[in-house]
Design brief:
Layout (H helix, E strand, L loop, with lengths): L2 H6 L2 H6 L31 E2 L3 E2 L19 E7 L5 E8 L3 H16 L1 H8 L4 E10 L5 E10 L4 E12 L2 E10 L7 H13 L3
Antiparallel strand pairs: 1-3, 2-3, 3-4, 4-8, 5-6, 6-7, 7-8
């Protein structure tokens, strides 16, 4: 897997790091729940899921921008199949609901502008970001795609992202695999996103 794909595979962790708004201690009350492996979009081989970890993934990279994500108040779960399909869900609890709103806005702007920035940073790379609308779930969730192709090595990758919020809690879900946008399970990913936001509280 090339360097770009490795960076994209940890895009969710990076994106959350753009905001230092979620640094306050989370309440000791019930922690937000996470997706189960079976709730990821259907795949030709079964999904497996890690346990839920505190903090951010160790291999967290950058999604079109540097990041500084505090481990405090942030948890994540990673997903994978046998066919190079992978995903992650990262959830963080902001200090206030206003901070959570700002965090969602920051993440949305970062993901929406990722394609053009990747092309600037990687000459020869073709990268297209697209918005796929808002979902009516809790305080809302937004879905995006990132389609990349590297002609030099003949690789193509497609990623789907969503950012959703329930009160002070923000979650970002990413799905990715080798292939093009036509290979992406957009409808099923919307269902996964709704499930993720509904499970937060």
């Amino acid at each position: 897997m090339n360097k770009l794909r490795t960076a994209l595979a940890t895009a969710a962790a990076a994106a959350l790091g753009l905001a230092a708004l979620a640094t306050a201690p989370a309440q000791a009350a019930a922690q937000p729940a996470f997706l189960a492996a079976s709730q990821m979009p259907p795949s030709s081989t079964p999904w497996t899921a890690t346990q839920v970890f505190t903090g951010i993934p160790e291999n967290g990279g950058a999604l079109c921008a540097p990041y500084k994500i505090p481990a405090q108040n942030t948890r994540y779960r990673e997903f994978s199949t046998e066919l190079d399909t992978n995903g992650v869900q990262i959830t963080t609890v902001a200090r206030t609901e206003a901070d959570a709103v700002k965090l969602v806005d920051t993440l949305r702007k970062s993901i929406a502008g990722c394609g053009p920035l990747l092309e600037q940073q990687n000459p020869g790379l073709r990268a297209v970001s697209a918005s796929h609308g808002k979902l009516a779930v809790e305080e809302g969730a937004w879905v995006y795609s990132l389609d990349t192709a590297d002609p030099q090595i003949g690789s193509t990758d497609i990623h789907l992202f969503s950012v959703g919020r329930d009160g002070r809690t923000v979650t970002l879900v990413r799905w990715g695999q080798m292939g093009d946008f036509k290979d992406a399970p957009l409808t099923a990913f919307r269902t996964t996103t709704k499930t993720a936001v509904n499970k937060l509280h």
